[in-house]
Amino acid sequence: MVQAEGPEEDGHQHQGIESGEFMSNTHWIGRKMTNAAMATAMNPARNQCVAAGDSASTGSGGGAARGPLRRGCFTMREHLSRRSAGASANTTSARAPPGRHASSFALHWTSGVSRTMIQPTITRFLAAAVVLALAAPAVAQTGLVKGKVVSADGKPVADAVISIEFMEGVSRKLATKSDRRGEFVQLGLQSGGYRITATADKLGSGFADVRIRVGNTSEVTITLSPVPPGTDPKVAALKVAFDEGVAASRANDFDTAIAKFQAALAVQAGLHECYYNIGYAYLQKKDEKQAEENWKKSLEQKADHAETLNALATLYNTQKRFDEAAAVSAKAAASSPGGNADAIYNQGIILWNAGKIPEAKVKFEEAVKADPAHADARFQLGMALLNEGKMPEAVASFEEYMKLAPTGQFAGQAKAMLAQLKPPVA
Questions:
Q1: Architecture of domain 233-421
Q2: Spans of all domains in the chain
Q3: pLDDT at position 229, please?
Q4: Which residue has the higher pLDDT, 235 or 250?
């Protein structure tokens, strides 16, 4: 007889059917029987059997005899009924005692039993196993998605925010993040269609639509782009070129910045912002002629663009073209309905450089009124007041500047003025 396989300590055993031996993977069928009891239980003369553990007798002395079962043993309903009854009556643990083989608890058949009786028993056993399996608690079936987030150049993106949204009726949204390798995993997803969106600062966003199936793993790769999904390709190319130009300019790579803004103009001509940025880049390269030319082109596209007007007025002021500077600066000031503090301040600077101190003072006062936090206007107003001999008012203006810009471009001068104008503290 082959011994049942499987660990004895886990409370369950593997099924084993060989030489007439069988076991349940949930309960042991029958009780331990001695050879004598087994011989009594079987009636080879009539080729009939009784349930293991029941008493059987062919004569007196064995107690009341139970009626022999019909050939082929009992039906499935009887089998389950007896199993139920046996389970309630027998409270002994199904686990095999330590140090003993589980096969010693198996039901044994004597060699006198015909093969025709073994097959129905095996069939009933398998059917019972199916019933027990169907009776087990249902387990929710779900799927999962594995993904990777990469940048436009294919590099993994860590800490991207992942949003997983169910797209079929019920509103359900989950969130996670990519790891240092740009990867993410989300478990417990019901079957259906999902949209997975990834977003990362400065790199943009991207999405992928995926269908989740029960028991399966779906995989996606999401490429981030600074251009929103669904954007027209022409607009996307324009935005990419413009943003790259801004990045290059901030990195002081002005040649690249100029090339990128010109590329943006090739996609869409007439963008005043591009001309303004090109003019700024040329000014940083000390090419004032090209700067002026591009700023004029910007004003051809948008005559009231305050940034361009201020830049051109400053250039004219530096070149001591004061009349032109004043005219352009006046346009800049008029371009903002509420008053453009920078433009007004520039007007004051132009007038100051032209030697028109009283007129400059008026503009500085207007700039402070338009923006009380305009530190440079506060300092220049102090200088104008000092020029008029109004020391207390000048001190107050310099002190206000130091509060607004303690490390500003005029901080050293303001400190020096205050040291001279304010009496020493006793």
A1: Alpha Horseshoe (1.25)
A2: 35-135, 143-223, 233-421
A3: 65
A4: 250
Q: How does 250-282 read in b/e, with b if 16+ C-beta sit within 10 Å?
A: eeeebebbbbbbebbbebeeebbbbbbbbbbbb
Q: Which two tokens stand for residue 239?
A: 């935005």
Can you name the CATH fold of 143-223?
Answer: Immunoglobulin-like (2.60.40)
Helices and strands: H and E segment counts in the chain: 14, 7
| Rounded Cα distance, 203 and 373, in Å | 34
pLDDT, tens digit, 9 for 90 and up, residues 315-331:
998 999 988 988 998 88
1-14 pLDDT, tens per residue? 433 344 343 433 33
Cα radius of gyration rounded to whole Å, the chain: 46
What is the C-alpha end-to-end distance of the chain, expressed in Å? 113
What average pLDDT does the segment 354-366 reach?
Answer: 92
Non-local (6+) Cβ contacts of 41 within 8 A are 33, 49, 50, 52, 54, 56
